[in-house]
Specification:
mainly alpha; 2 domains
Length: 111
C-alpha cells in the first residue's frame, strides 16, 4: 500500500515540476501530490500507533503472567532445623559432665 502511494506521489511530483506541464494542470498535480503525501503520512502514523499498541498489549500480557506466577505458592519441603542435633549434643555433653562431677564429688566424700 505504501509502495503504491510512493509511486503515485513520485509521478504526481514529476508532473507538477515538469516545465512541459500546463499551469492549470500543474496546479492539479501539485494538489494531488499534497493529498497523496498527506494520505501516506496518515497511513504511516496509523501503522506506527498500531505497532506501539501491539507492543503495549504484548508487554501487558507478559507483566500479567509474571505477576500471576509470583502469586502462586511454591511448594517447598519442610526440613528439620539445622540446630536441633547441636542442641541434643550439648544436652548429652552437659549430662555427661554432670555425671562425671557427681561421681567426683562422691569419690571425695568417700575418701
Amino acid at each position: 500500500m505504501v509502495e503504491s502511494m510512493e509511486r503515485l506521489l513520485k509521478m504526481a511530483l514529476r508532473f507538477a515540476e515538469s516545465k512541459y506541464t500546463r499551469s492549470a494542470q500543474r496546479a492539479k498535480w501539485t494538489r494531488l501530490a499534497g493529498q497523496l503525501l498527506w494520505y501516506k503520512d496518515q497511513i504511516l502514523r496509523a501503522m506506527t500507533w498500531e505497532a506501539i499498541d501491539q507492543d503495549y498489549d504484548k508487554l501487558e500480557r507478559e507483566v500479567y503472567n509474571q505477576r500471576k506466577q509470583a502469586q502462586t505458592p511454591r511448594i517447598q519441603r519442610i526440613e528439620p532445623a539445622p540446630f536441633v542435633p547441636t542442641l541434643v549434643k550439648k544436652r548429652d555433653d552437659r549430662d555427661e559432665a554432670g555425671k562425671d562431677s557427681t561421681h567426683a564429688d562422691l569419690d571425695k566424700k568417700e575418701a
